[in-house]
Amino acid sequence: MQLEGKVALVTGASTGIGGAIALAYGAAGAKVTIDYLHRQEEAQQICQKIGSEKATAIQADVSKLQDITRMVQRTVETFGRLDIMVNNAGIEVPTPFLEVTEAQWDRQLAVDLKGPFFMAQAAARQMVKQRKGKIINISSVHEDRPMPGNAPYCAAKGGLRMLTRTLADELAPYQINVVGIGPGAIATPINQKTLSDPQKVQTLLNSIPLGRIGKPEDVAALAVWLASDASDYVTGTTFFIDGGLMVQAGSL
Ligand code: BGC
Question: Above 60 in pLDDT, residue 251?
Fold first, then answer.
């Protein structure tokens, strides 16, 4: 029970990587707030699996500061503290650069960068009082690796990379660790379209040395360790979990 006595908040936790992290945190002994935007039923199911006294589902749009503030306040009211904040909620609408609209850009950055920024701020204000905390930003291999046809997503994740590093430095005096997780191709709703196209799957597999698409549980296992006291000396870096995708990039 690596997370016994800890309280976690996971955004975008009704499905995919966020859902797997919420379940793994619950199994490791944490109390968990499950943030969701649209998928209330799935969020409730995750709560039930963790146990209703140990989990609560809150509907909040991470692109709205008001929603963020309310969700962090309610977490602290319900569970008494906040030890672990996972910025997982994200969107992705691959579009050729020449066709990206202002609205698309604004929404991408609002969910994938403004959201984590203000979630981290609200969480850190509580963690500073506790003189300890873990902020985990779910980024992507594309915080570093270009992906043509997905420029707004890459720009948002690149921004998240620098947010992780800057906050790690600024919050270190309070013993708040800030780290990134950079997943590669993981089977989740965000890339359902790609994964239902056999040709695209083959192209992806060709660039993954371990030869398989990842599972949300692969990422959750890392997220448990990064949330636990075992990783107290880790801050300001991104852990890629990608079956080797990043090491292969650019080789002959
Ligand atoms: C994206 C996926 C993509 C993967 C590997 C992830 O960040 O969400 O769409 O397949 O990176 O390129």
Answer: no
